[in-house]
Design a protein that fits this description.
- Helix content is 62%, strand content 0%.
- It is an all-alpha fold.
- It has one domain.
- Helix 3 packs across helix 4, helix 4 runs antiparallel to helix 5 and helix 4 packs across helix 6.
């Protein structure tokens, strides 16, 4: 029981203040906006939190494409996901972070667990 509570207290917690752009990894941050590549970078990149954060957001957004199989509403949702990925890509090109509402909180939790 004591080991379990110690493990939970040792879990990493990231905030948006921890996610800072690194010019040296600009290309990786841009590539992380592509969901498949973002998934790989989420698991392989250990030092750059910006790259991992972009990867986590792109993967979580890509899950939204699953809803796209539902006519009309799903298509609109998939379109919104595409726009969010495009904005994230453009922001990464300019060295800025784009926080997708709701998804950004989940992305922070995901990078803490991976």
């Amino acid at each position: 029981m004591a080991e379990e509570s110690t493990a939970k207290s040792a879990e990493k917690v990231y905030t948006l203040d921890d996610i800072q752009f690194n010019e040296a990894n600009k290309t990786m941050a841009i590539l992380a906006c592509i969901p498949i590549i973002g998934l790989v970078l989420l698991f392989t990149e250990k030092d750059d939190k910006f790259v991992r954060y972009n990867g986590a957001q792109s993967v979580l957004l890509a899950l939204g494409f699953v809803v796209g199989v539902i006519p009309i509403i799903g298509w609109l949702f998939a379109f919104a996901v595409s726009i969010a990925l495009l904005i994230m890509f453009i922001k990464a090109l300019s060295g800025q972070r784009f926080d997708v509402p709701v998804i950004s909180g989940w992305a922070l939790k995901l990078i803490a667990k991976v």
